[in-house]
Every structure is written in structure tokens, then in C-alpha cells.
Amino acid sequence: MGILEIALRLMGISYPGFYRPDLHLGASLRPGICASYSKEGHSHVQINSQGWHDRERSLKKTRGVLRIAVLGDSFVEAFHVSWENSLCQVIGGDLIKRLAVDSQHDPVEVLNFGVSGYGTAQELLAYRHCVRHYSPDLVVLAVFTGNDIRENSRALERERTRPFFVCHENRLEEDDSFLASPQYRQLTSRRTRFIQHILDASYLAQFAYEYKSRFVQAMHPAGNNPGGLNDGVYLEPHDEAWSDAWRVTEALIAKLDEEVKADGSRLLVVTLSNPIQVHPDCALRARLAASLFYPDDRIEEFCRRNHIAELSLVRPLQRLADREHLFLHGFSNTTLGCGHWNENGHRCAGELISEYIHQNILPQLRRDGVNRR
User: Fold this and answer.
1) Mind listing the pLDDT tens digit for each residue in 310-357?
2) Which fold has domain 20-181+226-372?
3) DSSP labels for 310-357?
């Protein structure tokens, strides 16, 4: 046993618990965790002392700095690629280059507030409880339509250890009943804390626990098709559950916009790409989904009606994938065309977001003097 423990440590093979129960958000990242990650892609993950996959950040914003906060799920969290090649870093680096071309050298900070599994409800709560205290000039809400709409619905989402919102008489009301659920109580039990203590102390225990989890997952596959997630999102709502999921999602976006504006900032809603939407095999796209752009077009139209800045990435990313036969999702140790963005996906998406901010958001911020606060 001792030899195996030493060998795993020398090889840097570890599977720590990256997440912890959270009273407000259901789950959050554990501050200070540092480990390699190889479930999809390969990277070295370092969680900062505030509990985000980012370098250390000061709450107080330096005067003159353009501070951008990005809310999202695992696509923003970006364990799958190296930190310097992740979405937030690409946005920041590309924006600095564009400003230099304009002979402007304003410092830019792009803060990563992405956590795997978050839907729009948790992203709104993350803004309320944490992100707003960093005084961002711009808040980017990254919407992964592949599962975000489903995750905003109590009827459609199977995971019960998370907060939800419900629309009641045209008002959003938070539902934190997850705190009393057996699943959440188990996560916060003494037994679970003891197991986590053992896992933190032993790479061998982590290795055994990880492969047990993979075995169980293999025995109970999720059943998604090879190209996408939650096919119901590509269609007009066909039952009350999906109608309500969309109603809640749109209300959450509107509420986040209201609160961001009340804090003197701006909101940009960005819809990301689902694997099937940008798969370079056109025949596969056509066979698996009839209306690939429905969720993006719906969110775009909602934002237009409510005067919220919005950027849909799927069409330009699809054109890029077609033109260069480029896989934006998937890795050599998984399946190309499936799963999360690889480095190509992060780079292309980050550059598109940076371009939009530079052309459409920065002129407004400069006129208002927002980033001089």
C-alpha cells in the first residue's frame, strides 16, 4: 500500500474532491485545492483562496482597471485545458491586444466565476452573494443551453442538492428546500466529512474512490446521444415542464440584468455552443437535431425585447468548424466532437467574445466612465 501511495504521488496522479456543499449555491469549489485533472483533456488545477478556478483576486478594484466577471458552468470553470488557455484568459489577453491596436493600454481583469453544474439560478445567487462585491464593470453570463434550461427546472432536473427558483404570480421566488433533502444532509454529514478527510490524506484512497465512481457511472449511463445534450431544448416547448423551464430561465436572466444594472454595471448574455451544434460533420448535425439554433435564437430574441446585450456564438463557431473541419469539443482521451470545449473551442469563443466587447460594450463603458470607478 505504501509503495502504491508513493508511486501515485511521484506520478502526480490524484483525484481530490474539488467541490463542497454550499448553503447558498448547493455546491462550490473548495478553496486551495491543487491537483492534476485528466477526466477530459489534461490540466493542472489550482483553486484560489476565494474558491474559484482563478488566480488570487482582490475584492477592491484598482481605479482605471476594466474588470469583467464571467458567470457560468464547467465551460467557464475550464478544468479541461490549462488555465492560460481557458476562456477567461483568452478574453482578457485578446482584449488587451485589441486595445493596444487602438493605442489604448487600459489594464483588463477577467475574473472566472464558473462552477461545474451551475444553472442560471446558481449563477444569479453567485452574483448576489459573491461576484457583486468585486465591483465588476461588466458581467458576462455564459449560457450553456445544452443543460442550463433543464437545470433551472425542478421538474426536469434530477439533481436535488441545488437551489431553484419558481415563478409565482409573475415573481421569482427562491426555493431552497434542497437544504432539507436527504441527499444534501448526507453531503454535510459527519460520515461524508470523515471520508473527505481520508481522501484528502491519501492519493491511493482517491484513486480507488474515483475508479469505483467511474464503474458505477458505466453501469448507469446517462443515455445522451453522441452529439448533444437534452434534445428537448432544440424544440418549441412541448409540455408544461419545458414551458416552465424556459419561463424561469428568462425571468432569471431579467432579474440578473436588473441587479447588475442596480449595481452600476452592465450585463452581456453569451450563449455557448453545444457539441452537436458545431460538429464539423454536417450530416451528423442534420440527423440528430432538426432545429439546432432554437435555444440560441429564443434567448437572443428575449434579450433584444428586454434591451439586454446578447451574443450567440453558435453560428460563427459552426461556420469556423465547417470551414476548417475543426473540432471545438472533445479531447484525445475522450471523443472528438463531444463533451467540453478543447483549446480550439476556448480560443475561438474567447476571441469572439473579446471582439464583441471591444466593438459594442467598451464604447458604452467609456461614454459612461464606468471603468474609472
Assistant:
1) 999 999 999 999 999 999 999 999 999 999 999 999 999 999 999 999
2) Rossmann fold (3.40.50)
3) EEE-HHHHHHHHHHHT---B--TTS-TTSSSB-HHHHHHHHHHHHHHI
